[in-house]
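Exercise 7 asks you to align residues with tokens for two separate proteins.
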Amino acid sequence: MQKESSKVGPFIRTAAVLGVLTSGFFIRENPNTFAQEDKQAQSFALDMDPDASPANTPASLGSREICAQIINNNLLDADEDGIDGVDFDITAQNIPESTKMIAFSFTLDYPPQNLIITEKNTNGLLGTAPDYSKFDASLSLPDSSGSYTVSVADLSTQGVSGSGFLTRIRAKATDNTIKGNFALILSGAAHIDRNNGVWPPKNLENSQIAINEECGASPVTTPPSVEIQTPDVPTEKPLEFPSTGGQPQKNVSRLGLLSIFSGALIIVSGLKIIRKNRS
């Protein structure tokens, strides 16, 4: 009997995490909570040269480069890590011990006329958690939409703190590139803790890609549809819910509520399975 009931807690926690991931982090924290408790990561950032000494690792961060150059000529040159392609990291700095990460998500906006995302490696900081069991809800690859979302959860829900790369991405030049310097922008970024609290980082640090010219040779072009976000400010009018059980106060949108209902259905189904196994 004890063995069966021990499955319920992790199951419920996992269902809640998956609900948050599939909602695209529409559950948002109250900014007043941030002022009272230091539970956010210092930053999520783009590093355009992960191997620059000292290199980034899953559990440490080295130097950060804000620009990389691609020369679209079917040769391995400029800052390229593969022919006409570069690798770059999305990193997390100082995820607190008090809000250990069991999942994360972010959206990367990039110039689709110039780049296509071909590969990703999400075995970074989250992968250092004890008994790590990855659930990857990211968009499929290759991606040429100009807006790519990565969402990853650890089903063991042990949690991890500290700094390291979250995801390593390879982007290649398209056949019809446009010369210039172009912005790469993070949005919708947050980590989830073991109480299913959602914590945007204090800072989002963006970068740029230079196509067929040097970094800084021309003004940086930002996609007109992209709004550079302030991490801790909700972007839509929320529904207010009180804080409970020491968890961060949450503002839940209607889409967020739908995800919670979906999570509840998963929990109910799981409990039915557990009861069936008991009988």
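Second protein for Exercise 7:
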Amino acid sequence: MLDHYLFPVRDATSGIIQVIEYLEDVTERLALERALTQNEQLMALGKLAATVAHEVNTPLLAIRGCLGLLANAQVDPTARAEYFAMAESELDRAAGIIRVMLDFYQSNGNEQRSTDVNVLIERVAQLIKGECTRRNIEVLLCLAPALPAIPVIPDRLKQVILNLTLNALEVLADEGQLILRTFLHEEPRHASGEQLAAASDETGSFVVIEVEDTGSGVPDLLHEQIFDAFVTTKSDGSGLGLAVCRTIVQDQGGTISVENVAGSGARFTVTFPVVGDTSTTTGQPAHTANEASLLPDLHSSSI
């Protein structure tokens, strides 16, 4: 695959006298980026596999207990029916856990589609629910209703949200809080009508995703390098997770940043410009650059 560039050469009067054409073979670079993304997906899958194994093991132990009780020939019919019902209920619970994971990893292809980010976040939250319950971590969903859909590759964005969420869980103790938030942000315009953010289209609106935790935050010295490859705060980390997240987000026209929250932990913010019609946006007041401390009336829930 080739990237194609054209560079005009101008004379003293700024007239174009010739054009330099430059072709760059980016096949190897794109292959490396895909390999890094796949590697990070496998690492995230490994972390989830350990969590799911624990969640599935619990109902299996209950089923084994029920079978042990049913093996007793002296169990009366009423108790026997109760044990069968308990075993069936635990089987349904185990199947539900596996179904959630399969649904999460079902591929939707590699093409951009109009995507509801709230749906992706809710799927991630469902996936980590058991682990958070076990560790007494409260998950708050603060999702703005009726956000406009954005054109992204759903599987890629889902991977970013999952990576940020798993990172947050790793830094939290067995008691803490994880906040997953979305809202609509509007940039003010210049007097000339130009937007402050060149990435946005004529609407000047952005869908914002925030992943916030009550951990120890990001060390100040790493704020500028945290998204660089091989930079990590973990002793056993690869330093590729956040670098892959940045690549995925930027490739789809978005931005990603991090800041420490006063009295709390870290907040990672992913922003995508709204493209085209915003008629599906919430009727609540937008979160503007001049009202950074005022959030719209969000639908909040705890899982």
